């Protein structure tokens, strides 16, 4: 682990640096949308790695702990986060939203610290690092040899990101900067690169990336082509609902596109075999029990939901397990012209990286998209259940036309995976968007009571 960083040409010990940053970061981190521990106070803060990326910009990996308090579901406490901190004497008013605070003590005393990704100059210098592969302390900047990365592209930070931060450069490239870091190769680099090798054009190909070797090997960010004229599936679905238009043609094409991606994934990551439905059912039941402990509204439906998971243990095993997207919904697909593209293969960031990389039933992805149609339909009043039902049918029909099997004929599997997804949604909405909780709860009632 690097012990020092160069600040104003003087080597600074990590312990000295934390004397300057500790109090500010404890206050700032829980307010960030990508911070996972919002419901638990930051009681421990440790600097794992620090590198002066360029003058006035520090790259940090920090570990946050929560005083030994168990995380929901029994997950390990604490996380590692990637921070790019700008350090200046005075902050421009246009960077006011990036402010972390003014340092009162330690080697940075009297200076202002801010989130450097909001700063156009820092964002451009970060792109230059990716244009010219090399190293900076434990950081490694790498690029696809044949890729073209133009210089001087104006950057803008996307506001809609939640679990990560993304910079768009000149509407040509997009850099996803991972915030919550786990050891290993991030699937959002590994999977698109493997799909590109298969000739799959439904996924933007990585152009460049950066990683760290300390304290462990981990992916930090990925640069890809930006689909400038694309609209995400969620926005398109809401537009269709608002105008009273049907969305079945688009849903059918999306089903075909997803089948194409699944076939390419199976070829890129061969030899996965079949799911152990018994073990899958047990894991789903465990997640249900944990969610019901946290969300009282879920408890009356637990017996019926357990029935959905119990049936999984004895139903048709379905298609072979394989690498999947892992967090598929309408916000993870883009339509450019007449083509659908699939993005964000990171999976659920709250899950351990090893779990996100395991082979799973492709029905999991299908269930995620079917739930997303239901979410979209419930954004308009009066609710239009027939719109969602037709989209679900069209998506499955498009998928079946290319995949060689029909999700609608795997009723037990589909019900179990939809139920598992709805349980996840209930827990997420209860924590982050309580006003949205009725949306997954309506599905919970349907799946538990009628078993649809």
What does the model show?
The termini are far apart. The chain is built from twelve helices and 18 strands. It is globular, with a radius of gyration of 23 Å. With 452 residues, the chain is of the alpha+beta class. Helix 6 packs antiparallel against helix 7 (302-312), helix 7 packs across helix 11 (411-432) and helix 7 (302-312) crosses helix 12. A seven-stranded antiparallel beta sheet has the order 8-9-14-15-12-11-10, with helices on one face. Strands 3, 4, 5, 6, 7 and 13 form a six-stranded antiparallel beta sheet that branches. Strands 16-17-18 form a three-stranded antiparallel beta sheet. A hairpin with a 3-residue loop joins strand 11 (164-169) and strand 12 (173-178). The chain folds into two domains: 4-225, no CATH class; 231-450, Aminoglycoside phosphotransferase (APH), C-terminal lobe (Aminoglycoside 3'-phosphotransferase, Chain: A, domain 2, Alpha-Beta Complex).
Key attributes of the depicted protein:
452 residues, alpha+beta, Aminoglycoside 3'-phosphotransferase, Chain: A, domain 2, seven-stranded antiparallel beta sheet, 21% strand, globular
